[in-house]
Each structure stands twice: as C-alpha cells, then as structure tokens.
Design a protein that fits this description.
β6 and β7 form a beta hairpin. This protein has three helices and eight strands; from the N terminus they run αβαββββαβββ. It has a four-stranded mixed sheet with strand order 1-4-3-2, with helices on one face. The protein has a four-stranded mixed sheet with strand order 5-8-7-6, with helices on one face. It is of the alpha/beta class and 147 residues long. Helices cover 20% and strands 34% of the residues. It has a single domain, classed as 2,3-Dihydroxybiphenyl 1,2-Dioxygenase, domain 1. The longest helix is centred in the first third of the chain and has 11 residues.
Length: 147
C-alpha cells in the first residue's frame, strides 16, 4: 500500500471545531433549537467546557474560548467570521419548518444550485446551511409554491 492510500484509509471523518463565547447559549441553539445530541463532554468546575454534538450523520465540536491561561487562543477577529457549514439533507424544507417551530430565525428556503437551502447563524456568527436536492427551478422561494 502506498503512502497516499495509507493516509486516505486512515482518515475517517472531519469534524468542525467551533470556539464559542457561551456554552449554555450555544447548547440551547444546537441541541434545543437544531436538534443535535450531546455525545461527549469535558467538564471544568462542573461546567461543560468542550463537547461533541451529532445530528444524523453530521458532527461538530464546541469549546468555550479561553480568555486566560495556557488554553487561551487569540481569535484574530470575530468568532464565526468567514466560516460556513453546509449540511446535506433529505428534506431541507422539513428542517426549516422544524427550526422555525422552535423559534429559530431560519431563512426562507430557496433553490440554488439545484438544492433547497435554508440558512441560520449561530450565536457566535457561524453560518449554517441545510440543503437538499430538488428539480424545482432555480431561485424559487418556498412562499412561491402552492403546497
């Protein structure tokens, strides 16, 4: 087996790791709002400092940004700036309806690149898109359909 094949067979998954400002607020957004499940956590002084979340086949990690000590990391800018995750889904419209029923500010689904897309921004400014394939014409908005 060549080196490239060894590396590719060794790598199993990529998991985004978001540094965040407020764990409780982020968990409300991701778990209560989007429906992620808390799978693992690291506690410091009985508070969640880091966690692994899953939703279907997707996962992400959150860690409260340390402001002092050896774990402190300079952000170099606003958290979430320039970061976007695009979740590939079976039915983005159903997720949109679920998200707004939970009080989240999801964008009206619209077709782009042959996919229905609804987007949200998390409490730290990370952009999240939920997309599903469709044969509906480009630029169609959900409100334009008679469902």
């Amino acid at each position: 087996m060549n080196s490239s094949a060894q590396v590719s067979s060794n790598v199993k998954q990529v998991v985004p790791f978001f540094r965040i400002s407020d764990m409780d607020r982020s968990l409300r957004f991701y778990v209560d709002g989007l429906g992620f499940t808390l799978k693992n956590k690291w506690l410091v002084d009985e508070k969640i400092r880091w966690c692994w979340l899953e939703l279907g086949g997707a996962a992400l990690m959150l860690q409260t940004l340390a402001t002092d000590g050896h774990h402190a990391k300079p952000t170099g800018g606003k958290l979430g700036e320039g970061v976007s995750l695009e979740f590939q889904c079976q039915d983005a419209i159903a997720l949109y309806r679920e998200f707004i029923s939970r009080g989240l500010a999801a964008s009206e689904p619209q077709v782009g690149n042959a996919m229905w897309t609804t987007t949200l921004t998390d409490p730290d400014g990370y952009h999240l898109g939920f997309e599903s394939l469709t044969d509906t014409p480009e630029d169609t908005k959900l409100s334009e359909l008679k469902l």
